[in-house]
């Protein structure tokens, strides 16, 4: 079957594979069931969004950037709005900041519950998958009733938010949180006590704190390894200044602790939303913002459900940005997959991959179509001409 | 004439295929309801088979075409033939001779063996890993499963299915040999590659395992074989452990109770890794069932 000594036996995963909901390519060299080498190739879902922002005005860009990710859409718009507001020297009113944080935390709950289902599915535990997704619907209904949309909520404006939260809506949120808190407790007990499931998570893909620091992990993935890293705590933004977040940490670093950290973060989100709803600041929800943003550049960092989201925004004083650079948390966490995968069983690879909660299309900021030694830098004109010729079919 | 009818219509052939589909539907529907889903409609398994039969069968390059075409047929034939020796629908088996239990069990294993061979016949890496896992799993559950079914046979003093069935009607083996019953039930899950023993076809790792390169007719035949095996396996375990089967009503009730138990097990557990499957069977399954065997022998020795 295989000439063991010389020929390498490679299991390709992706770009199309049932374990991947988005395109990415992984090659795992296996010896029997044990992975001996691994490589990652990304860039299949590069959409040129960064370049596209340069030909749209500040307001239009908010809608474009919100569509970088379907799961954490609000946090992208939030990072962008906070950055632009900083450049313009305006800050959104306290009530708007509070509503932004409420939506961000609701989004975190929805993202973590979704991840719980996906990760359980990778382990072949479809019952947990179906149950957690059913319960997540309660939250999707809340988001829909608040913003009108289930995914791209479009809650932000530059300088504020689009809607206020009425007393009725407040009660709806609290009711949903009560159900979800009950269910989350149940899920926490499942992932920490189900014997069969624990055999697939405990002691698998263990990342030490030192390793996590070295790879540069962010978000819940890093916090599961005992790295205290959370932008909401380290550099509070929006309403996190007035409503501090408790850092959720776990020190083991295996797959089980990633489950535990994410579910415990759910409880922290429930607590935070309740606290903000109880002490909502009064007042306006929008601030006036100029159409042209002052010249300058800024960095905006927020904590997305998957970890630190980084925006660099540069303005040249016109109504369009000069440059926007986005770095999503998946980019930082992806490096852990080939590192941790080596020496593991092939069956654990999908779990290790899902453990970082990957979002491929969000992280694809570049694509490599030709790998070789001959470096060749094209000018913008040449690239444009190449594109025109390519689509006319005459190179 | 009656023998041809027995093979083509009842209890072989059409009845088996239709019955297998109904049992598969019941299994899927039960799991769906346990997972809070709606589940498929009753004709979904038939629709799946018809769709597959209509589709083009792609024979990949680098395979032995003869084996590629013949293996699914052998697999289905094995499963269908094994049905002739079990008390299907609570009626007496069509064919019966001393020692037919062993023949029936090995005919049932033919499907797994063919799946493994079909996987190793192709050059696709998913298929090869799937085939390795299928055969590894075969070697781990086969012996404990066989021993679990031999328990009632030894108690009955015969290795003929119809005689064990008759003996079981006055002795509820599920209570007399509880360990054997649990091992046989879980062994059936392993035999059918159902969760938590579905690592040979774990879709999140190796797509469809050994079946990855199969499409159209070949895949439909393998699926049919699996459905028939589900029905035959349920019949065998129900007749040995649940007080025998001697009329159609008893058959339907007892097999459905077994199926419910299997569905609950399937939806309760995450997928086991292949090394954990082997460990589970040899460390616990085989030892427990052998221990029970020993106890039975000793009791038998003292009482006789």
Write the topology of this structure.
The complex is a heterodimer of chains A (395) and B (304).
Chain A: E1 9-13, E2 25-31, E3 34-41, H1 49-53, H2 58-66, H3 73-88, H4 94-122, H5 126-147, E4 156-157, E5 160-161, H6 167-193, H7 195-201, H8 209-215, H9 219-223, H10 231-234, H11 255-278, E6 296-304, E7 307-315, E8 321-327, H12 329-334, H13 336-341, H14 349-355, H15 360-363, H16 380-392
Helix pairs in contact in A: 2-3, 3-4, 4-5, 4-11, 4-14, 5-6, 6-11
Chain B: H1 2-8, H2 13-34, H3 44-54, H4 65-82, H5 100-121, H6 125-156, H7 161-168, H8 173-176, H9 178-191, H10 203-206, H11 216-241, H12 248-268, H13 274-303
Give a summary of the structure in a few sentences.
The complex is a heterodimer of chains A (395) and B (304). Helices cover 48% and strands 12% of the residues of chain A. Chain A has 395 residues and is α+β, with helices and mostly antiparallel strands.
Task: Tell me what the structure shows.
The complex is a heterodimer of chains A (395) and B (304). Chain A is α+β, with helices and mostly antiparallel strands. Chain A has one domain: Cytochrome-c3 Hydrogenase, chain B, CATH 1.10.645.10. A 3-stranded antiparallel β-sheet of chain A has the order 1-2-3. A 3-stranded antiparallel β-sheet of chain A has the order 6-7-8. A two-stranded antiparallel sheet of chain A has the order 4-5. In chain A, helix 2 runs antiparallel to helix 3 and helix 3 runs antiparallel to helix 4. The mean pLDDT of chain A is 86. Chain B has 304 residues and is mainly alpha-helical. Chain B has one domain. Helix content of chain B is 72%, strand content 0%. Chain B has 13 helices and no strands. In chain B, helix 5 packs antiparallel against helix 6 and helix 7 crosses helix 11. Chain B is globular and about 65 Å long.
């Amino acid at each position: 079957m295989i000439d063991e000594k010389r020929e390498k036996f490679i299991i390709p995963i992706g770009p199309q594979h049932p374990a991947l909901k988005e395109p990415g390519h992984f090659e795992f060299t296996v010896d029997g069931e044990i992975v001996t080498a691994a490589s990652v190739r990304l860039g299949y879902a590069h959409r040129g969004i960064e370049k596209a922002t340069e030909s749209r005005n500040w307001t239009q860009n908010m809608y474009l950037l919100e569509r970088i990710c379907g799961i954490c859409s609000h946090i992208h718009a939030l990072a962008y709005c906070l950055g632009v507001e900083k450049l313009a020297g305006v800050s959104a009113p306290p009530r708007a900041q509070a509503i932004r944080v409420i939506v961000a935390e609701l989004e975190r709950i929805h993202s973590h519950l979704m991840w719980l289902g996906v990760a359980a599915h990778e382990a072949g535990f479809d019952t947990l998958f179906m149950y957690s997704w059913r319960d997540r619907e309660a939250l999707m209904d809340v988001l829909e009733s608040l913003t009108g949309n289930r995914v791209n909520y479009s809650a932000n404006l530059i300088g504020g938010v689009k809607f206020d939260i009425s007393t009725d809506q407040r009660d709806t949120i609290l009711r949903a949180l009560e159900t979800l808190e009950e269910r989350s407790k149940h899920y926490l007990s499942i992932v920490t006590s189900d014997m069969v499931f624990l055999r697939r998570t405990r002691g698998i893909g263990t990342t030490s704190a030192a390793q996590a620091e070295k790879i540069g992990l962010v978000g819940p993935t890093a916090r599961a390894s005992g790295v205290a890293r959370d932008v909401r705590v380290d550099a509070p933004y929006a309403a996190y200044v007035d409503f501090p977040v408790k850092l959720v940490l776990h020190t083991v670093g295996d797959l089980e602790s990633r489950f535990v950290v994410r579910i415990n973060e759910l409880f922290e989100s429930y607590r935070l939303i309740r606290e903000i709803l109880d002490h909502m600041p009064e007042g306006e929800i929008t601030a006036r913002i100029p159409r042209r943003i002052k010249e300058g550049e800024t960095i905006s960092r927020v904590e997305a459900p998957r970890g630190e989201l980084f925006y660099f925004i540069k303005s040249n004083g016109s109504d369009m940005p000069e440059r926007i650079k986005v770095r999503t948390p998946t980019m930082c966490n992806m490096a852990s997959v080939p590192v941790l995968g080596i020496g593991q069983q092939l069956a654990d690879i999908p779990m290790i991959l899902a453990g970082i909660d990957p979002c491929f299309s969000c992280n694809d900021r570049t694509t490599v179509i030709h790998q070789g030694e001959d470096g060749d830098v094209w000018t913008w004109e040449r690239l444009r001409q190449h594109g025109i010729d390519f689509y006319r079919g005459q190179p | 004439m009656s023998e041809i009818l027995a093979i083509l219509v009842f209890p072989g052939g059409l009845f088996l295929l239709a019955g297998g589909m109904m049992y598969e539907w019941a299994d899927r529907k039960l799991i769906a309801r346990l997972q809070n889903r709606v589940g498929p409609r009753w004709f979904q398994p038939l629709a799946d088979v018809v769709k597959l039969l209509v589709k083009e069968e792609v024979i990949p390059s680098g395979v032995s075409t003869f084996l590629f075409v013949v293996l699914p047929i052998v697999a289905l034939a094995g499963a269908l033939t094994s049905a002739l020796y079990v008390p299907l629908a609570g009626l007496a088996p069509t064919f019966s001779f001393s020692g037919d239990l062993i023949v029936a069990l090995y005919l049932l294993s033919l499907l797994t063996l063919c799946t493994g061979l079909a996987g190793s016949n192709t050059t696709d890496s998913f298929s090869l890993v799937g085939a390795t896992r299928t055969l590894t799993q075969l070697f781990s559950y086969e012996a404990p499963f066989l021993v679990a079914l031999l328990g009632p046979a030894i108690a009955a003093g015969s290795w003929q299915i119809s005689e064990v069935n008759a003996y079981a009607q006055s002795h509820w083996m599920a209570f007399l040999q509880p360990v054997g019953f649990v091992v046989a039930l879980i062994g059936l899950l392993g035999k059918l590659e159902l969760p938590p023993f579905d690592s040979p076809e774990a879709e999140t790792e190796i797509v469809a395992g050994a079946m990855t390169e199969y499409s159209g007719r070949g895949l439909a035949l393998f699926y049919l074989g699996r459905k028939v095996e589900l029905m035959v396996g349920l019949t065998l375990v129900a007749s040995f452990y649940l007080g025998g089967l001697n009329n159609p009503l008893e058959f339907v009730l007892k097999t459905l109770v077994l199926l419910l138990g299997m569905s609950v097990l399937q939806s309760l557990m995450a997928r086991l890794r292949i090394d954990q499957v082997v460990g589970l069977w040899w460390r616990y399954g085989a030892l427990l069932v052998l221990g029970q065997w020993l106890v039975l022998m000793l009791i038998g020795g003292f009482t006789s």
